[in-house]
Amino acid sequence: MKATLGFALCGSFCTYRTVIGVLPQLTTQYDVIPIFSDAGYSIDSRFGPADAFVREVEELCGKKALHKLEDVEPLGPKKLLDLLIVAPCTGNTLGKLANGIADTPVTFACKAHLRNARPILLAVSTNDGLSGSAENLGKLLNRKHYYFVPFGQDSPQKKPYSLVADFARLPEAAGAALEGRQLQPILL
To answer: What is the tens place of the pLDDT at every residue in 19-69?
Structure first.
């Protein structure tokens, strides 16, 4: 039987093409339930209209996306997920998770999932990873049940504080997280 993954997309729209490109590999290995943040579900950006991204993800996963608090709440009590992936995980979401705030579909999905002591895999994508979000990143690196897709600076000269996950390693990191291991090296 295939493991079931939640796949939550936050509003780092510049990474959507790359993140969505990994979904076909995940959907062949796992049963994948798509989840969108409020921003991801509703904001049209210069990278494309929100409804097109939602449709594409739903088609790849073969399921309607969860995008409301009431949609994700049952994930915990019903133990619906083996692993919850947040990709891309924005600085805003990092901050909320690090400080126990569960007021969006993605952060509430994480809270519901954590009640079962099951793994969460974060694929960081934030322009302030080495500044404002660094403290929150540090908190989550030290917290039980959180795992990270290996990450590094994406443009050290133009954006010296920016961090982004190596999304191509998402499937490998998911397998490791399901085994209770952090894929290494974590810093690229």
So the answer is: 999 999 999 999 999 999 999 999 889 999 999 999 999 999 999 999 999
User: Rounded mean pLDDT of 76-81?
Assistant: 96
CATH entry 3.40.50.1950 includes domain 4-178: yes
State the Cα–Cα distance between residues 88 and 103, nearest whole angstrom. Answer: 18
- Residue 180 tokens read as 């209770």
pLDDT tens readout for residues 98-152: 999 999 999 999 999 999 999 999 999 999 999 999 999 999 999 999 999 999 9
Q: What is the pLDDT of residue 104?
A: 96
Q: C-alpha angle 145/177/1, rounded to 5°?
A: 115
CA gap 22, 145 in Å, rounded: 23
DSSP states of the chain:
---EEEEEE-S-GGGHHHHHHHHHHHHHHSEEEEEE-HHHHH--BTTB-HHHHHHHHHHHHTSPPB-SHHHHGGGTTTT--SEEEEEEE-HHHHHHHHTT---SHHHHHHHHHHTTT--EEEEEEETTTTTTTHHHHHHHHTSTTEEE--EEES-TTT-TT-EEE-GGGHHHHHHHHHTT---S--B-
